[in-house]
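Onboarding guide, step 5: your first structure request.
Type a short instruction followed by the sequence, for example:

Predict the 3D structure of this protein.
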Amino acid sequence: MKIKTLALFVGAMLSTGAMASSQQSALEQRLNQLEQRLQAAEQRASNAEAEIQQLKSKPQPVQATAPVAVVSEQSVDSSTDNKSPKLTLTGYGDLKIYGDVEFNMDAASRSNGLTSMRRSANTNWADGNNERWDVNGRILLGFDGYRRMQNGNFAGFTVQPLADLTGHMNLDDAAFFFGHENDWKVKVGRFEAYDMFPLNQDTFVEYSGNTANDLYGDGYGYIYMMKEGRGRSDSGGNFMLSKNIDNWYFELNTLLENGTSLYQDKSYHGNELVNDKNVAYLRPVIAWSKERFSVAAAMEAQVVDNAYGYVDANGQTVDQSSRTGYGLTMTWNGQKTDPDNGIVANLNTAYLDAADETDFTAGVNALWKNFELGYIYAHNDIDKFDVTSAVQNCDSDCWITNAGTYDIHTIHSSYLFPNVMGMKNFNIYLGSYVSWVDADNDSSKGSDNTRYGGRVRFKYYF
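The system replies with structure tokens like these:
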């Protein structure tokens, strides 16, 4: 009996050991399988990371038609019934929104009778008998759209509304353009063409204002600056073709407008002008530049005959619309290679052959370390002038009431305080000028021939 019991015990122990050995073997097998799965998972993760890096380094095609949504989140107090507002763009190229603030504090002597100078950033004429102390300026908002194809073709637009301190809304540029980058371009709308009389860092000498209108004030000296056909007209628009070839630049601007808008009060040489048809200015420009030096030559010609004139004593219309100008400008820009100490200098000349008048203007200016100084000389030679009408229109305040020659001298200066309060987009300018006229006839009003002014300009970009 004891032997039998012992046999059963030994058998049970052997059976238990066999079962334990079997379970241990199964456990080891499962651990091996788990380790293989972990290794496989690590390998897949490594492969996925490598694929992600390859995708990041590979350039992605731009989906031109895919809309881009800009969504603003509602506050926690908003009603759940209201959907979050969103701005959706078409995706046809890039959209840039920008602007700048330009406010001026001015102090100037009376402006009547000397030059047809705009002394205000507003669009209204700024002559008068009294000294002027005022604050003026405007805020500009800009919206630019631009689309570029992979082959270099591009198209876009620009629009720049202005809000001035007089409570009026105006417009700087509004144009559409297209072409091929670094090659050719077509532009149509309201804009300014090539600047043929740059004044460098000027803040207060704005003889021609910012448009092609009201440039000529009858009875005032005229500082001709090749701007009659440049653009930004209030009575017409531009069409411009331009081309780049290596260091050369070619431009042909066409301005179509009411020709009498050139004259303040629609008066010229003492006669009231009557418009018959719109004028067309053709303004070709050829420019060459290399490194720090550039030079440009241009002409502007009004090509429509008998566009406007005055009615003489016999009831006949006398054409006054013939106007052809020529200009040359040279620039040395040392700031291209030395931004801190480089000198920027301009030498400008312009000549106008107009009906019963020729005008010559020359100017030189230089900028160094935020300080700018310039001089402008203008010579007006008037062949014919209706003295009777001029006295009535000018109310005895005009300088030029007779035929003859007049020399106008202007010295202007400007200083820039950049990065005000450490802000790279906030600058303050100090500007000043003094002008005087010399006449070769008795129309001179004694020693009262000097005008001067000063300005503080606040310029903020956003």
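Each response can be followed by summary notes, for example: The chain has a mean pLDDT of 83.
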